[in-house]
Every structure is written in C-alpha cells, then in structure tokens.
Write a structure and sequence with these properties.
Length: 104
C-alpha cells in the first residue's frame, strides 16, 4: 500500500474511495511514568514516551491501511497524524487519509 502526505500522485489518475483512518488510545505504565517524572528534573528526551508514541503511530497506521485495503484501495494520499490527551496518562493517536484506487 502506497502512503503519501501529498494530495495527488504525479502522473497517476485515480478515483477516491473515501477516508481511511486508524486510531489507538495508548496509556503510560507506572514505571515509565515514574522514570519520566525523574527525567523532567534534569531535562532531555524522555525515550520511554518517544518509544510509546512511535509504537502507537505504527499501530494507527496499520489500522488505517487495513481500512483502506477493505475499501479496495491501492494507496492513501493526504496522510496526516494527530494526537490528543483523552485522560490523564492516556493519549489518542489517529492516522487518516484519502483511500484511492488507480485507474488503468
């Protein structure tokens, strides 16, 4: 499945099948949260959170691709990611884009 953040594929004609999205709500574990709290005292990257969010983006992307595949898509264009805190200690990651099918 081709993924692109641009809104078209140069030289390709396509039909729009609809929006494809994937979401996940990921929570922190106590150990990771505790260590992150200590890290804020000295500054720097909080690697545990970086890893957690990277994993969440991968899962959201896979779910978006699965939804596009179910629509019969060849690609997803206009891919975007968003995140928000849904409650203390939990974040939602959403991946979304336009599912398209190439014309022959």
């Amino acid at each position: 499945m081709m993924l692109a953040s641009i809104d078209s594929i140069p030289g390709k004609e396509f039909e729009v099948l609809g929006m494809a999205k994937g979401t996940i709500v990921q929570s922190k574990n106590f150990g990771r949260d505790f260590m992150a709290g200590l890290k804020t005292l000295v500054g720097g990257e909080i690697k545990g959170y970086t890893e957690m969010l990277n994993e969440a983006r991968q899962i959201a992307t896979k779910r978006m691709v699965d939804e596009a595949t179910a629509l019969g898509a060849d690609a997803i264009i206009g891919v975007r990611y968003g995140s928000s805190a849904v409650m203390q200690g939990a974040a939602e990651i959403v991946a979304y884009g336009t599912a398209i099918k190439f014309k022959n």
